[in-house]
Amino acid sequence: MLTVAVLISGTGSNMRALLEAAADPGFPARVVAVGADREADGFAHAEDFGIPTFLVPYGQFPSREAWGEELARQLDVWNPDLVVLSGLMRLLPPALVDARAPHIINTHPAYLPEFPGAHGVRDALVAGVSQTGASVIVVDDGVDSGPILAQERVPVLPSDDEHTLHERIKPVERRLLIDVVRRIATGDIDLAAVAAPQTT
Ligand code: GAR
Known about the structure:
By secondary structure, the protein is an alpha/beta fold. It is built from 7 helices and 7 strands. The mean pLDDT is about 95. It binds glycinamide ribonucleotide (GAR).
């Protein structure tokens, strides 16, 4: 059974979908803890499922590195096989990424490498594209630059604003995330192989 810790910053609606999937005894992964960098509304979902939570408030640390050290300590308590960033709106410091790589994945509301960063939905709208998407990637030391595990296109409608487009992307993210976690748990996705440097 693959053990998973989820990190969030906000509402955690995608995380809730993962918690619902993982509540099925037939699902090959279980969520052991949910952490956040701020008092996140999504903690309520964890509580609904009886999953422990931990808070590492970014603003209370003198640097990203110091925050990351405490986050690493909290993760070590649960020592999950996989860390899922599900709306964590902070870059992890390299020391934390390097300690757990390649076993950290991230969902992103755009068709990477298009529109990386904190405003993937807004940036797609501003660019005026007719389609954007959703991606699940392996986290590396860059900004949304790791190997892509799954992605799917989502059309942009002329009537879309940031909210309506994001709400249409999220169900796709949820489906991709649940599928990727399942495939990691069953060994169908080998993160070490995906993240290994390519040799020709
Ligand atoms: C999701 O769309 C996720 O991909 C995005 O935040 C949203 C969280 O929604 N993450 C990023 O943009 C990270 N760069 P939720 O809190 O409702 O699950």
